[in-house]
């Protein structure tokens, strides 16, 4: 079992839909990242959070430390949101990241 | 601020050869981490350099080695290349002086081993 599990693996939505991607982890962490990866490979950090909730534009990230679970929400989805979304956790010692397998999101017009 | 830069962007090698990948961290960052991402999978941690020393290492063989220079830039070396080493190699930089030291990623180097 991976230390970081994401669901779903693939997600197809229509433009305007509300999207949720989930991440569960099994280790103690000091922080959790949500990352976006477009075709070609470059990774962009969307959020880093260690508690509660963060919002940036149409993106919202939440984390429940007790349940070891985080969600990434996209409101009013748009085709330009199509990408791979990756959850990564930073352990309690050192700064290495452990990644989930990613969620491929496709938003159709 | 140029952000994290990596070179080259693409590379094709044959089995048994050696390769060197390069990374320049974001301005003000002193820590460099390297990750390998196979097609369709999440990145896997290779190692991390801080103060010119390897600070942490993932589950990769000794064929994978690295170096950090006084200007904080870093190299990843892979010897005796195998077909399975074909992947996107990502470099990420961070600051050891910042709480939670968020990592910023470079665009990656796509290595193909034939």
Question: How is this structure best described in words?
Answer:
The complex is a heterodimer of chains A (109) and B (114). Chain A is built from no helices and eleven strands. By secondary structure, chain A is mostly beta strands. In chain A, the strands form two sheets. In chain A, strands 2, 4, 5, 9, 10 and 11 form a six-stranded mixed beta sheet that branches. A five-stranded antiparallel beta sheet of chain A has the order 1-3-8-7-6, with no helix packed on it. Chain B starts with a strand and ends with a strand. In chain B, strands 2, 4, 5, 6, 9, 10 and 11 form a seven-stranded mixed beta sheet that branches. At the A-B interface, β4, β5, β9 and β10 of A face β4, β5, β9 and β10 of B.
Which descriptors would you attach to this protein?
heterodimer; A: 109 residues; mainly beta; six-stranded mixed sheet; five-stranded antiparallel sheet; B: 114 residues; seven-stranded mixed sheet; four-stranded antiparallel sheet; 0% helix
Secondary structure elements and pairings:
The complex is a heterodimer of chains A (109) and B (114).
Chain A: E1 4-7, E2 10-14, E3 19-25, E4 29-37, E5 43-49, E6 52-56, E7 59-64, E8 69-74, E9 83-91, E10 97-99, E11 103-108
Parallel strand pairs in A: 2-11
Antiparallel strand pairs in A: 1-3, 3-8, 4-5, 4-9, 6-7, 7-8, 9-10, 9-11
Chain B: E1 5-7, E2 10-13, E3 19-24, E4 31-37, E5 44-50, E6 53-57, E7 64-68, E8 74-78, E9 87-94, E10 104-105, E11 109-113
Parallel strand pairs in B: 2-11
Antiparallel strand pairs in B: 1-3, 3-8, 4-5, 4-9, 5-6, 7-8, 9-10, 9-11
The profile of the biggest β sheet of chain A is: 6 strands, mixed
How many alpha or pi helices of chain B?
Answer: 0
Distance between the termini of chain A: 36 Å
How confident is the prediction overall: mean pLDDT of chain B? 93
Provide the helix percentage of chain A: under 10%
Class based on secondary structure composition and strand pairing of chain B: mainly beta
Average of the residue pLDDT scores of chain A: 93
How big a fraction of the residues of chain A is strand? over 45%
Please identify the oligomeric state. Answer: heterodimer
Outline the low-pLDDT stretches of chain A. none
State the total count of DSSP E strands of chain A.
11
Backbone CA Rg of chain B: 13 Å
What would the principal axes of the Cα set say about the shape of chain B? globular
How many helices of chain A?
0
* E-strand count of chain B: 11
Largest inter-chain interface?
Answer: A-B, 25 and 28 residues
Order of helices and strands of chain A: EEEEEEEEEEE
Structural class computed from helices and strand pairing of chain A: mainly beta
């Amino acid at each position: 079992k991976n230390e970081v599990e994401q669901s779903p693996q693939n997600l197809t939505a229509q433009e305007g839909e509300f999207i949720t991607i989930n991440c569960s982890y099994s280790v103690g962490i000091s922080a959790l990242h949500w990352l976006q990866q477009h075709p070609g490979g470059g990774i962009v950090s969307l959020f880093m959070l260690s508690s509660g909730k963060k919002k940036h534009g149409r993106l919202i990230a939440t984390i429940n430390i007790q349940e070891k679970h985080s969600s990434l929400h996209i409101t009013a989805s748009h085709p330009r949101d199509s990408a791979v979304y990756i959850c990564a956790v930073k352990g309690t010692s050192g700064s290495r990241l452990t990644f989930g397998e990613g969620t491929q999101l496709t938003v159709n017009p | 601020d140029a952000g994290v830069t990596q070179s080259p962007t693409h590379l094709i090698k044959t089995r048994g050869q050696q390769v060197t990948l390069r990374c320049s961290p974001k301005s003000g960052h002193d820590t460099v981490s390297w990750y390998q991402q196979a097609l369709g999978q999440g990145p896997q941690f290779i190692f991390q350099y801080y103060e010119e020393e390897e600070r942490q290492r993932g589950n990769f063989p000794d064929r994978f080695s690295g170096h950090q220079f006084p200007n904080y830039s870093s190299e990843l070396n892979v010897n005796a290349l195998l077909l399975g080493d074909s992947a996107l190699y990502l470099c990420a930089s961070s600051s050891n002086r910042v709480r939670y030291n968020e990592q910023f990623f470079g665009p990656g180097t796509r290595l193909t081993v034939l």
